[in-house]
Amino acid sequence: MNNEKSNVAQLHEAIGPRRPHQQGRNPQIVKRRIRRAIMLIAVFAVGLVFLGIQLFTTNAQIRSMNHSIDREQTTLQKRQREHRKLQKRDQRLQNQDYVKALAHSKYDYGKKGETNYHFVKK
């Protein structure tokens, strides 16, 4: 073989001998990498804080809505009970005998010729 060196080998020799990779050999590059790392960490930290705040406010809104739903369900149940009572009362008021007894006992109403007596307990 020929001992002549290729063009690439000649260029390498002209630049200088090969050095093993040294970490931190250029301080400007190291500073740039540190700044980039700090910026990435800061961006992720701000993102996490934002997501945490969103999670907290959403959770508070959900709790508030659940409390409101519970209050409204209680009110609805109370109104449904009142409605059933009124329906029963309406059905009783359709009965003429009940209306007569109610008028007689509550309002002291009587037919012509009837005498109402009130007894006082001692």
TrEMBL record:
Keyword entries, A-Z: Membrane, Transmembrane, Transmembrane helix
A Pfam family per the record: DivIC
Spans traversing the lipid bilayer: 37-56
Residue numbers spanned by region Disordered: 1-28, 71-95
Residue ranges that the Swiss-Prot or TrEMBL entry lists as coiled coil: none
Amino acid composition bias (Basic residues), ranges on this chain: 78-87
Record-linked InterPro entries: FtsL/DivIC
Keyword Membrane: yes
Superkingdom, natural source: Bacteria
Protein name: Septum formation initiator family protein
